[in-house]
Design a protein that fits this description.
Length: about 180
C-alpha cells in the first residue's frame, strides 16, 4: 500500500512540476554524445545466425546474420561489422559475394551496399549500406567465406552495429554461432 502511495505521489508531483506533456511518450531521437558522435538509443537484436552448408571445407557455404532494428532505435543502421572469434581456423570472407536484404532471410528486397571490406584482415568484414536501414526494419546479411573451416566445431562471430555519423561508437549485439561438422 505504501509503495502504491509513493508511486502515485511521484506521478502527481511530476505532473505539477513538469506538466502533463512529460508523461506522454514522444518519438525518440538519437543520443548525441559530448563530442558530437551519435549512438543508438535502444539495443538491436541479433535474431538469427545460420549457414546453408555446415560441412567442413565446403566452398559453397554462406553465413547469414539477421538483425532487428527496433522502432525506438533513435538512429538508422549504417553499417555492420562481423568479426570471427579466435578459433582453430580463421576464415577469409569474399567481399564481392556479400549480400543484404530486408526481412528474416534473403528472399526480401535487395539492399544496395556502399562498401564491403575485410579481405585484407582474415576473420573480419564490414558491410556499409548505401542507404541506412531505418528503425522498425529487419535486415539479413549474407557473407561468403572462401570455404568452411578445415576443422569442425563451433565458430563464433561477434556482430557490431554502427549508426550514421563519423566515428560513432558501435553497439555490440552479441555472438552468432555457426556449427561446422566433420
Amino acid at each position: 500500500m505504501l509503495n502504491k502511495l509513493f508511486i502515485s505521489s511521484v506521478l502527481t508531483i511530476s505532473t505539477l512540476v513538469f506538466g502533463v506533456n512529460s508523461l506522454v511518450l514522444k518519438p525518440s531521437t538519437a543520443v548525441e554524445l559530448l563530442d558530437g558522435q551519435k549512438a543508438f538509443e535502444s539495443s538491436f537484436r541479433l535474431i538469427r545466425t545460420a549457414t546453408n552448408f555446415s560441412e567442413r571445407n565446403n566452398s559453397a557455404a554462406r553465413y547469414q546474420f539477421t538483425i532487428e532494428v527496433p522502432q525506438d532505435a533513435g538512429e538508422a543502421l549504417k553499417s555492420v561489422k562481423i568479426t570471427q572469434k579466435e578459433n582453430m581456423d580463421t576464415l577469409v570472407f569474399k567481399a564481392d559475394k556479400t549480400l543484404a536484404s530486408m526481412g528474416n532471410n534473403l528472399a526480401g528486397a535487395n539492399i544496395p551496399l556502399a562498401a564491403v571490406g575485410g579481405e585484407s584482415k582474415p576473420g573480419e568484414t564490414t558491410i556499409v549500406f548505401d542507404t541506412p536501414i531505418e528503425p522498425g526494419n529487419t535486415v539479413t546479411i549474407s557473407v561468403k567465406p572462401k570455404q568452411n573451416p578445415f576443422t569442425g566445431g563451433v565458430y563464433l562471430f561477434g556482430v557490431t552495429a554502427y549508426p550514421t555519423g563519423e566515428d560513432s561508437p558501435g553497439l555490440y549485439l552479441g555472438s552468432g554461432r555457426i556449427h561446422i561438422y566433420d
